[in-house]
Amino acid sequence: MTPEQLRTARALLKWSQVRLAAKSNMSEGTIRDFENRQRTLRPSKIAAIRQAFELAGITFASEDANGA
């Protein structure tokens, strides 16, 4: 997942960074820093974000070995 994909999914759901952080069990700072390309995320954190989005109805068209 790229920062752009994350922002786009958040926008589609009209979720704030705070709401996504709560839904994926991580800090708002982690979400913000990833969106701003100031941090990379471990695969487990990407999986938690993806799961939060998928539970809300977002699907991702394709992915590579890194989940992008």
General description of the model:
It is a single chain. The protein has one domain: 434 Repressor (Amino-terminal Domain) (Orthogonal Bundle), CATH 1.10.260.40. The protein has four helices and no strands. The longest helix is centred in the C-terminal third of the chain and has 13 residues. With 68 residues, it is mainly α. It starts with a helix and ends in a 13-residue tail after the last helix. The mean pLDDT is 92.
Structural key phrases:
68 residues; mainly alpha; 434 Repressor (Amino-terminal Domain); 0% strand
Q: How would you summarize what this structure contains?
A:
By secondary structure, the chain is an all-alpha fold. The chain has helices at residues 3-13, 17-24, 28-35, 43-55.
Return Rg in Å: 11 Å
Q: Structurally, how many domains make up the residues?
A: 1
Contiguous helical run count: 4
The CATH superfamily label reads lambda repressor-like DNA-binding domains
- End-to-end separation: 4 Å
Q: Secondary-structure element order, as H and E?
A: HHHH
Roughly how much helix do the residues carry, as a percent range? 55-70%
**Helical/strand content category:** mainly alpha
**Beta-strand residue percentage:** under 5%
User: What would the average pLDDT be, to the nearest integer?
Assistant: 92
Largest sheet: none
Which residue ranges are poorly predicted, with pLDDT under 50 across at least 5 consecutive positions?
A: none
- The name of the CATH architecture is Orthogonal Bundle
- What CATH calls the topology is 434 Repressor (Amino-terminal Domain)
- Give the overall form: globular
CATH top level label: Mainly Alpha
Give me the count of strands.
0
